[in-house]
Amino acid sequence: MVRFELDGHSRDAPDGSSILAALRAQGHELPSLCYHPRLGALQTCDACLVQVDGRIVRACATPLREGLRVDASSPLVRAAQSAAMDRLLQNHELACTVCDKNNGDCELHNAALRMNVRRQDFRPKPYAIDDSNPFYLYNPNQCILCGRCVEACQDVVVNEVLHIDWSLQPPRVVWDRGVPIDRSSCVSCGACSTVCPVDAMMEKRIAGRAAHFSNFAPATRERLVRWTKNAVPDLGPLWLSSEIEAASRRGSIRRTKTVCTFCGVGCSFEVWTRGREVLKVLPTAESPANGIMSCVKGKFGYDFVNSPERLTEPLVRDGDRFVPASWDAALDRVATRLGEIRAKYGPDSIGVIATCTGTDEEAYLTQKFARQVLGTNNVDNCARYCQAPATTGLFRTVGIGADPGTMADVEAAELVMTIGSNTAEAHPVFAGRIKQGQKLRGHKLLVVDPRRHELADRADLYLAPRSGTDLVLLNAVARYIIDQGWEAREFIATRTDGFEKFRDALAPYTLAFAEQVTGIPPADLVRMAEMFHAAKSACALWAMGITQHQNGSDTSTAICNLLLVTGNFGRPGTGGYPLRGHCNVQGVSDFGCLPPYLPGYQKVDDPAVRARFEAEWGSPVPTRKGLTSTEMVDAILDGRIRALYILGEDKVLADADEAKVARAFEKLELLVVQELFLTRTAEYADIVLPAAASLEKEGTFVSTERRLQRLYPAFPPLGHSRTDYDILVDLARRMGARWQYSGPSDVLDEVARVTPTFAGASFARLEGFRSLLWPVAPDGTDTPVLHTERFNFPDGKAHFFPVAWAEPAPVAPEYDLMLDNGRLLEHFHWGNLTYRDPGLVHKVPSTFVEVPTELAAERGLREGDRVRLRSPTGAAIARVHVSDRVRGTTLFLTLHDRGEGAVNRVTSDVRDGPTTTPDYKGTRVRLERLEAPGPLVSPVPESNPHGKPRIAQSGVRVEAKWARPDYRPPGS
Amino acid sequence: MARPIRTRPEPDGAGSWPEELAPDLAASAASLRELLELLRLLDERGVLRFASDLLREEDRVLDVVTERVPPDDFRRAVRNLEVVVRTFRDLDPATLSALAGSVPGAVREARRAEADSAMGVLAIVRTLRDPDVNRGVRMLLGFLRGIGRPGSA
Predict the structure, then answer these.
(1) Is the pLDDT at B13 greater than 60, yes or no?
(2) Are residues A549 and A636 both part of a single domain?
(3) Nearest-by-Cβ selection for A678 from B8, B52, B63
(4) Domain encompassing residue A672
């Protein structure tokens, strides 16, 4: 602690505090506009002035030291603060009564009100409002030039688009080199509007909607403000009327904590709603995973929730049409039909697919419904399509199939390797932490991916191996490290087992062999090995580019082996991180929706485990081996599965070989689909049950970090739709189960009783923005870093697990092109949610296929041409985008289509052995040019931000402000 | 063989009104349409929301008012309001109406007199003989008498 003097009184503050932090902790409100807890001291606003040792200084940037005498209240200091506030108010017209930001948290309003400012000398800037972007606008006239938006863009999310041009008269925020927002490289993450202390950078969704009197035409509004100010120049009535206005809207605008419904990073937000209208999604400084960060989908992509196309009542098939039904009629029919099929064919004739966007509690009930009510272990989830091989790799080597640390570890790692992951688009907030580590701490970034994407552009070393050959690359680098004697000997000796066998198995993986298979020159492989050798801590991140190959489990294992060889597991800043792709794909697996596992990865074939669940449930747990999601399709076709119950999964589009799945579904005796929309899968259903969205639910999610977080309902389910929790409980009771829950909290309590991993998890411990990283001990202690003491094997050691390269199954030579595929930032999978948002569609209107420039020239293809991609499985049609992101004979097709461009029309059903995950990324195609109706139109519009040059700088560059001739230092 | 069904059933219309209201609704259809249009506009311009928000948050709004307005100011404002109300209550409408009716003529005369040359004492005495001026002076003196009477202020 540091003892200091504040206005003549002795005070204590923690070591390392700034004066501003210490004073705030003492309840002393200094005006401060540029300081933000997640951004630090920017020193642009010059408002938080105090006197120290006879000098006026900025409190935010002045560290406290023992015995310091701080004067924060003398007339001299007050005068300096007032002068600073007057200068700020030259940049911002106080019209708070008609301002959408007048929610009680406008920092400028609050500071000026506290200082009882009575007049302002507002000087309009000669710049127009930029409202070209579909999601947010910039009003230079209200901008106080604090630079928070720039700091967030440059050094937090590290998108490096915004800067303040201090050379302009007057200065303003500019995008790239001064282009309209919608034509810039801005990816619309919204961080700028999140941190803006005023209404200059504002989400369009709230603009004109929050305030009672803001919905005027801008010119009218301006005239009204001008007349009022001329008539009443004193600000007293403004403070009163604006406070009344703010108070009056407080009851109708509700703020609810939620967790993002898109990828698995686990961003948490405050969502502002009025009735069912989503006004704003606000990441907060308290959001444990993301802080102030978000991506365009998480911040702005919620139009789907109130889409008129949402299902709002149960539908029952009647011949070739659906007819509406009451819940009683629909659920009775489901219960009756499931009962009949179970009685006729046995419990294993039914399969259940859990949703990765439901809550943990709903996942638990789903597997309980399958096991207890139906009597089968045929329960799986979408991790089968993506993450199961990564989990296998971790299980094999370190014994726990989850990320061993958090994003803080990845940010702190001296070396981050991303392999088979377009992190900046698929997990943008996670990428922000990686970019921070590289930009602010000088850490190294190694990217391995056949397709050049944003992180590849930023990488210190970028390698583009042939698709699906990563295992050879990893083994070769591991061998080279051992050959050089660079392996982590002490770690290997004390914390691992099986090294010698592993080393011997690497013998074939010479650099020359690796070059032959991967196409990567030995010098680059050596550089990669040197980077691992030089780094004191390293993390490896991977995703579908690794797992969606027929060797996905083995390549995931090879990543873990490399980390073990270099001693990069079991301590902060290290480890292997599969990047989970759905908001709760981690949770739905953790909570038991996997054929061989009960919740907490407790094996179904372990009698002691079954006994615990049987005691809790009062009924037997089935012992027969369950089928995976992909195996269920085979089982339908060969008659073993007769009924399928699918919750929130568009399986027709998600499985490889769409036509095969469609054939299977046509054969089912009963298909029940629980969904938000009439998806391609729901079209085959006998009964469609309308489900609720995450904003309408209470429960918990588990993020890719193993982070349990609560979400609260922002409004009730739309129409007659219901939560999965409600539906499952109701259905289970109709089928004879005695489920007695008063709400999802009871379910989590039950999980805690039977699952050691979640022993200490409860709603109370997850209140608000609090979170827990599993395993959670009974006393509530959580585990930010795994394996620090022991690995999860009986001997406590990590296990090297040798893996060998096998040539993929050959394909006829006419299929001469490799078809890579994956996500873009703006859309989510097939677009069931994101194509309902006009803003996202504006940025990316449709799917497209990227064709390398040279290949396009060779085949005479032009931007916007329509092409058919034909594989041995089928054909897909898309427009051409000529691109340098792909090379040679590799194409890239986005995932985002539900029709003729759907990628799984061409993917084959070849699978990874241990997990049955399809080899989506190993598809070979031939390309046929089609006649394009009408003029050629690029599928990538000018508004698309990707690939445009960015302007990187360090923060807001306040020094440039200080160098301006009109700058007046504090107190002058 | 379950073939895909690509269309949803058309949603039913909203719930219908009780049957006995049908004749009244039909008779008032035009008025109801106007009323609905008015409601729509009130809603669109935010008036409905402001009104309902004010009512919903009445306590909070009153809190703000009572916190922001100093008690002395508030007391003064209420008293002045009360005086104004009492004064208007006690005035005889017929008398006030007659007085108010003479104001425009008085203003016109004042305008004309403003342009005349300066008046001496004799001119003032002469003017007092004008019955209108004489009546006006009598009323003014009466008003002053009333103002000056003890207990009037």
Answers:
(1) no
(2) no
(3) B8
(4) 315-386+584-773
- Which residue is closest to B8 within chain A, CA to CA? A322
Is residue A602 domain-shared with residue A713, that is, in the same domain? yes
CATH code assigned at A668? 3.40.50.740
For A972, residues 6+ apart whose C-beta sits below 8 A from its C-beta are none
User: Quick one: pLDDT at residue B14?
Assistant: 52
- Sequence-distant (6+) residues with CB within 8 A of A909 are A630, A655, A656, A657, A660, A873, A918
Residue-wise pLDDT tens digits, A473-496: 999 999 999 999 999 999 999 999
pLDDT at A267 over 90: yes
* CATH number of the CATH domain containing A25: 3.10.20.740
Among residues A546, A563, A578, which one ends one of the domains? A578
The pTM of this model reads: 0.90
C-alpha distance from A387 to closest chain B C-alpha (Å): 29
pLDDT in tens, A639-682: 999 999 999 999 999 999 999 999 999 999 999 999 999 999 99
Interstrand relation of A172-175 and A162-165 (parallel, antiparallel or unpaired): antiparallel
Do A60 and A73 belong to one domain?
Answer: yes
Per-residue pLDDT of A371-414, as tens digits, reads: 999 999 999 999 999 999 999 999 999 999 999 999 999 999 99
Calculate the CA A473 to chain-centre distance. Answer: 29
Residue pair A940/A827 in contact by the 8 Å Cβ criterion: no
Residues A446 and A500 in one domain: yes
What is the CATH number for A883?
2.40.40.20
Q: Do A666 and B6 touch (CB under 8 A)?
A: no
Q: Within a domain: residue A693?
A: yes
**Short-list A24, A193, A32, CA closest to A108:** A32
Name the token pair of A298.
């998480």
Clarify whether residues A478 and A510 are in a common domain: yes
Enter the ipTM. Answer: 0.82
Q: Does A674 share its domain with A537?
A: no
In this complex, how many residue pairs, one in chain A and one in chain B, have their CB atoms less than 8 Å apart? 80
Instruction: Specify if A540 maps to a domain.
Output: yes
Q: What is the DSSP letter of A369?
A: I
The Cβ-side half-sphere exposure at A43, using a 13 Å CA radius, reads 16
User: Structurally, how many domains does chain A consist of?
Assistant: 4
Whether the CB of A684 is below 8 Å from some CB of chain B: the reply is: yes
Within a domain: residue A427? Answer: yes
Q: What are phi and psi of A769, to 5 degrees?
A: -90, 10
Chain B contact probe: residue of A244, A651, A688 with most B CBs at under 10 A: A244
| Closest CB from B7, B49, B65 relative to A244 | B65
- Do A247 and B2 make contact, defined as CB atoms within 8 angstroms? no
